């Protein structure tokens, strides 16, 4: 076994573990979207339109998440990255 074989084998392991982690993130994200109410995407778009009346932002600058607790309590979290003020 040469020293190059040692480095090649770790890259494959690292690549596989990285791919596995990414897949787990994608699956978790899709599960979260399935449990979200149908009106959430429309609500996000309307919120973005209201904010755009005052500040120029893109869709990527807005993050909307809905968390539900066991106590039948829903929390809507909205994060907006605003541009620097003048």
The overall average pLDDT, rounded, is 77
User: What is the string of helix and strand elements?
Assistant: HHEE
Gyration radius, rounded: 21 Å
Q: Give the CA-based shape.
A: flat
Distance, first to last CA = 62 Å
How can the largest sheet be summarized?
Answer: 2 strands, antiparallel
Helix content: 40-55%
How many helix segments?
A: 2
Query: Largest sheet, order of strands side by side?
Result: 1-2
Structural class: alpha+beta
Number of strands: 2
Low-confidence stretches: none
Quote the beta fraction: 15-25%
Task: Give your account of this protein's structure.
The protein has two helices and two strands, in the order ααββ. With 86 residues, the chain is of the alpha+beta class. Strand 1 (62-68) and strand 2 form a beta hairpin. The longest helix has 33 residues, at 3-35. The radius of gyration is 21 Å and the shape is flat. The model has no long low-confidence stretch (mean pLDDT 77).
Write the layout of secondary structure elements.
Elements: H1 3-35, H2 40-52, E1 62-68, E2 74-80
Antiparallel strand pairs: 1-2
Features of this protein?
cell division, cell cycle, 86 residues, alpha+beta
Q: How is this structure best summarized?
A:
The protein is an alpha+beta fold and 86 residues long. It has two helices and two strands, in the order H-H-E-E. The longest helix is centred in the N-terminal third of the chain and has 33 residues, at 3-35.
């Amino acid at each position: 076994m040469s020293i190059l074989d040692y480095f090649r084998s770790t890259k494959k392991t690292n690549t596989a573990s990285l791919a596995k982690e990414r897949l787990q993130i994608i699956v978790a994200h899709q599960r979260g979207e399935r449990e979200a109410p149908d009106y959430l995407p429309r609500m996000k778009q309307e919120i973005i339109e209201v904010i755009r009346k005052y500040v120029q932002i893109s869709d990527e600058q807005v993050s909307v998440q809905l968390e539900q607790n066991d106590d039948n309590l829903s929390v809507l979290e909205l994060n907006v990255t605003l541009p620097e003020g003048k």
